[in-house]
């Protein structure tokens, strides 16, 4: 019962904030749904979606991940949103960022890794296509950089 | 458990059209809701679920965060400066708490 009220409160908040911004906030349940959505689009691997993560990370609770989307100019498309996925985490969809004409599709953030795994980026482009990239991250035990 | 956000910008007085880098970090426990207290009760989830950045009121960059984002979430992004104005950033968490930061940008 308590869960219901929490969800309702969250939904009310989402609706409220959606009224003020151009890219409406999503509830986290939708974030997980967006992941399956993008996966269903059978994303192609593109070398212009650059995902940078350390090969070996010594702190699993803060692993720096960078995403750059630089499609070739002749394609004439730009990036609308990027979703980062950690498939072995309890909640795989980690974060989603949306861009505007003023923002370069280039961001860095810190993620938590439940275990060593591949981090996956899914990018939805302006023509509706979805591209993906993966980078493996190993977690070092002890974490002294050895 | 929050404090003043820390925001860094690569150039406070850029030319119009320059691309500047912004690093934004805020103190927040980002409690996942998976952990248990010593008494065995689940600590309720409370994470920052939304980050928004706008320039003079127009949203230019936004993010939806989930539990896989580290505590004290750090976000770095780049944008093209359209002119002098104010860069506004807002973080909001599950409990409805909102943290704001603003940065004046002058063009040279």
UniProtKB/TrEMBL annotation, chain A:
It comes from Aquamicrobium zhengzhouense. The lineage of its organism: Bacteria, Pseudomonadati, Pseudomonadota, Alphaproteobacteria, Hyphomicrobiales. Coiled coil: none annotated. The keyword Mitochondrion does not apply. This is Thiosulfate oxidation carrier protein SoxY. Residues 46-144 form the Ig-like SoxY domain. Residues 1-27 form the signal peptide. Pfam families: SoxY (PF13501). Keywords: Signal.
Automatic annotation (TrEMBL), chain B:
Pfam families: SoxZ. InterPro entries: Ig-like_fold, Ig_E-set, SoxZ, SoxZ_dom. It comes from the Bacteria. Residues 13-100 form the Sulphur oxidation protein SoxZ domain. This is Thiosulfate oxidation carrier complex protein SoxZ. It comes from Aquamicrobium zhengzhouense. The gene is soxZ.
